[in-house]
């Protein structure tokens, strides 16, 4: 580090973590710096990621479904999981996304809502990184309002037959198993929504990759096409009924993003501090100008406060409960502030800031997706607004 204090030191953040938590954080940081950092700009540039190989390595590290109990999962705390997400997203949001979708969406859905048979079949392999999962909720015409989904599951004898399309699905083209949410006639309207565990080699299932993204380029994003996908009765997640099923999974993934997004912001800030120390403008280091220091100080405040908010929500979750509106506070604040920090750091690096030689523009572009997925800022504002006023303004 060029300066004398990091944000972590200024806020004495380590004093809020146990020795074991710091150890887990350091292990994941070391893995990210050694195994992923050297390759990430190239993967982003080429918009290709060795997802299967990475999944094996991340499984070996123990971070896939690490906050789940049993079935080969590590059974660690929410704070441990959050710290892992923070360190992975300090490298790239796409890596954290791979881990979030695997552990918090696909594995959590099976762990929380699945049958013993489904859990035994998929979770140990997914925890080890031998099988990859994806989570299909969003559709081309239904993102913020998933209750309107058109994908249908219809009974045919004892089978289910699925038809429809999902859009923007992380890990879709590389997944071995897809958790797909579809409407049924088991109950009226969105209460009829059920989850299905779909092996991706089932006839009628395909997952074309979405190319030409300018954000999350080191992440696979796909469409899921379901054409007369026939599944046995046992493919349905037996315990999930209605929109509550998928939304409960989103709480888990949003929690990881609260930590992750602030990791991306920290990486941008550390890069800008280092850069300002050595870049000479008008014969002096950029760091010695008051305008630069004002920018750095304001960003340090937001990065530090973002950590505090993440730790507080992590402690609440570990104590047994965190409300969806509290998760919305963290997702809204930390994503919104992280993208502001990334953009401000880019101004400090100026022209150098637009290249992949530095991580800043990559983080800024990634954070455009992170701000949008798992509930847009507006969705989270409305969730917080509803908690404050008792009035729902979604419709
Ligand atoms: P609403 O009437 O409010 O609720 C329907 C039922 O769901 C319950 N519920 C929740 N349960 C658990 N957790 C939550 N966060 C919940 N929010 C609501 C609710 O109690 C109710 O239960 P019940 O039993 O009474 O029926 O539903 P609504 O149709 O008005 O929609 C509410 C809204 C807009 C908040 C929700 O639909 C929403 O969150 N929209 C945003 C969609 C979204 O975030 N999609 C993300 C897709 S996955 C993804 O983006 C992965 S990105 C990759 C990565 O993570 O890295
Ligand atoms: P829309 O819902 O069409 O929203 C458009 C605009 O309208 C937004 O600004 C929104 O905030 C605003 N808006 C919506 N409702 C209201 C309202 N009531 N009042 C005011 N404004 C409103 N989905 C999955 O299911 N699985 C995945 O793995 C997954 N991965 C993704 C990966 C990437 C890279 C991206 C970009 C998306 C991913 N998504 C995934 C989809 C993501 O969850 C949706 O994009 C997101 O929920 C928003 O939906 P939308 O894009 O259709 O926007």
Structural account:
This protein is α+β, with helices and mostly antiparallel strands and 395 residues long. It folds into 3 domains: 7-128, Orthogonal Bundle (Butyryl-Coa Dehydrogenase, subunit A, domain 1), CATH 1.10.540; 133-242, Butyryl-CoA Dehydrogenase, subunit A, domain 2 (Beta Barrel), CATH 2.40.110.10; 245-389, Butyryl-CoA Dehydrogenase, subunit A, domain 3 (Up-down Bundle), CATH 1.20.140.10. 52% of the residues lie in helices and 13% in strands. It contains 11 helices and 9 strands. Strands 2-3-7-6 form a 4-stranded antiparallel beta sheet, with helices on one face. The protein binds 3-thiaglutaryl-CoA and flavin-adenine dinucleotide (FAD). 3-thiaglutaryl-CoA binds next to helix 5, helix 7 and helix 11.
């Amino acid at each position: 580090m060029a300066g004398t204090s990091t944000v972590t030191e200024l806020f004495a953040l380590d004093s809020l973590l146990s020795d074991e938590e710091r150890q887990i954080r350091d292990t994941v940081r070391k893995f990210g710096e050694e195994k992923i950092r050297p390759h990430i700009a190239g993967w982003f540039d080429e918009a290709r990621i060795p997802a299967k190989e990475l999944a094996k390595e991340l499984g070996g590290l123990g971070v896939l479904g690490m906050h789940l109990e049993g079935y080969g999962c590590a059974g660690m705390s929410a704070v441990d999981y959050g710290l892992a997400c923070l360190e992975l997203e300090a490298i790239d949001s796409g890596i954290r996304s791979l881990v979030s979708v695997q552990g918090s969406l696909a594995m959590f859905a099976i762990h929380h809502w699945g049958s013993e048979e489904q859990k035994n079949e998929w979770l140990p392999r997914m925890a080890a990184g031998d099988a990859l999962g994806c989570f299909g909720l969003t559709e081309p015409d239904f993102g913020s309002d998933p209750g309107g989904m058109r994908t249908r599951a219809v009974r045919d004898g004892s089978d289910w037959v699925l038809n429809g399309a999902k859009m923007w699905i992380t890990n879709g083209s590389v997944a071995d198993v897809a958790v797909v949410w579809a409407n049924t006639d088991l109950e009226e309207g969105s209460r009829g929504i059920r989850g299905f565990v779909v092996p991706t080699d089932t006839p009628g299932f395909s997952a074309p990759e979405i190319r030409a993204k300018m954000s999350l380029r080191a992440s696979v994003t796909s469409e899921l096409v379901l054409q007369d996908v026939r599944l046995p009765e046992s493919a349905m997640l037996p315990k999930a009924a209605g929109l509550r099923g998928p939304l409960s999974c989103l709480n888990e993934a949003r929690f990881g993003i609260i930590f992750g997004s602030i990791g991306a912001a920290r990486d941008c800030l550390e890069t800008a501090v280092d850069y300002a120390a050595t870049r000479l403008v008008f014969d002096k280091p950029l760091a010695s100008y008051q305008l630069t220091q004002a920018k750095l100080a304001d960003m340090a405040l937001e990065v530090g406060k973002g950590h505090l908010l993440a730790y507080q929500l992590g402690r609440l979750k570990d104590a047994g409960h965190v409300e969806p509106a509290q998760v919305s506070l963290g997702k809204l604040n930390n994503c919104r502030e992280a993208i502001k920090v990334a953009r401000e750091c880019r101004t400090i690096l100026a022209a150098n800031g637009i290249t992949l030689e530095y991580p800043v523009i990559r983080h800024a572009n990634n954070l455009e997706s992170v701000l949008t997925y798992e509930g847009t800022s507006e969705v989270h504002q409305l969730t917080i607004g509803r908690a404050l006023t008792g009035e729902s303004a979604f419709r």
